[in-house]
């Protein structure tokens, strides 16, 4: 076995161990049903220590997310809830950080419709790779649209990329079901994945 192959195998082994360790860490953090400031800071320290020796994109993705949360020095309740949802999806084994939604079970519009922003009303549900919901709403507002609650006037329901096959049992499942029911009664609402929405920004 040449040195290059040996180095690659060692790197693969290290990264696999890091992911296993991260899964265990994430399970410990969400075990009590919530995430607090101290736990976010602890996770950041682990990510910093492992980022330099890792090529795992999910570690970099999570590091960026935690860095955004702590950028103002405070992990507020909404930010903690979003991080909790992302870690829950990751540890459940049916979603990977940054993975696109499982379109087979989500009631997405098929084919995905055009996305217009000017004068359009958006509702965001779930946990987003793009950032917190307020960041998604800001992106829409800067393009002439609005973000807010799900109503009959909503043009698009955007489902976050950390959706899992068990979405019906998640905290945001009711909103998705309500939007699907609205659509079935003829209300012109489009249900789209974060990936499709983000690609049109």
Quaternary: single chain
Mean pLDDT over the full residue set: 81
Strand content: 5-15%
Largest sheet: 4 strands, parallel
Helix-residue proportion: 40-55%
Low-confidence stretches: 93-104
* Helix and strand composition category: alpha/beta
Q: Got a strand count?
A: 4
Rg estimate, integer Å:
19 Å
Organism: Pacificimonas flava
Protein name: NAD-dependent DNA ligase
GO molecular function: ligase activity
Keywords: Ligase
Please characterize this protein's 3D structure:
By secondary structure, the protein is an alpha/beta fold. It folds into two domains: 3-92; 121-199, Rossmann fold (3-Layer(aba) Sandwich), CATH 3.40.50. The chain has seven helices and four strands. It has helices at residues 3-30, 37-51, 57-69, 77-92, 133-141, 173-184, 194-199; strands at 121-125, 146-147, 156-159, 190-193. A four-stranded parallel beta sheet has the order 2-1-3-4, sandwiched between helices. The longest helix has 28 residues, at 3-30. Mean pLDDT is 81; it is low at 93-104. One of its GO terms (molecular function) is ligase activity.
